[in-house]
Specification:
Length: 199
């Protein structure tokens, strides 16, 4: 079996990528960030304005929601690898086109091979469609699906909490359940005995 390229080699390839027209309008590609041995990988849609400016994923308003959701699951951002299905910003934040998704796919595939995460959390419909084609987010959100050695957990995109506030409570419940699943799978430690004490 051939060794997958290192995360840094993949990031370098993304930074000089010209496989699709998005390279002409991007400021900075956004390869993703996090530990190379992260057990949990998060895959969003595409960089927005602030991500394009900074070269980092989820640093705008949706990123703040994501941090809050991760905290509910008992995760910190520096424990997870965060990337997107598309590494360069579509102008005006339009939906990615099929040919852009196709051109970018090898990078995500290599990142998964390099990190070999036990859990992949999809954020939004484009990312979900890559791992769970045909699934409907309103039906499957928060429910882990086994794929070989790993779990795929489809979640609403964090921006949903901003433009459909009533769904925030649903998202919070999904991340609470994710935290429980991560503890059941041995990825997060069990809650400390003191936190289980009944007063
Ligand atoms: N939305 C995404 O899907 N990804 C980002 O990096 C930022 C916003």
């Amino acid at each position: 079996m051939t060794t997958p390229p290192s995360l840094e080699a993949i990031a370098q390839a993304i930074r000089s990528c010209t496989r699709c027209p998005l390279h002409r309008t991007r400021r900075n590609p956004v390869p993703g960030e996090g530990p190379a041995d992260a057990a949990v990988m998060l895959v969003g849609e595409a960089p927005g304005y602030y991500e394009d400016r900074s070269g980092r994923p989820f640093v705008g308003a949706a990123g703040r929601v994501l941090d809050e959701m991760l905290a509910i699951a008992g995760l910190r951002r520096d424990q997870v690898f965060i990337t997107n299905i598309i590494k360069c910003r579509p102008p005006g934040n339009r939906d990615p086109k099929p040919e852009e998704l196709r051109a970018c796919q090898p990078y995500l595939r290599d990142q998964i091979l390099a990190i070999d995460p036990r859990v992949i959390v999809t954020l939004g419909r484009f990312s979900m469609a890559y791992f769970l084609p045909g699934a409907k987010i309103s039906q499957v959100h928060g429910r882990p699906v086994r794929r070989g050695d790993r779990w795929i957990v489809p979640m609403y995109h964090p921006a949903v909490a901003l433009y459909r506030p009533p769904l925030r409570a649903v998202m919070e419940a999904d991340y609470r359940a994710l935290g429980q699943a991560l503890r059941a799978w041995g990825i997060l430690p069990d809650a400390s005995p003191s936190s289980q004490e009944v007063s």
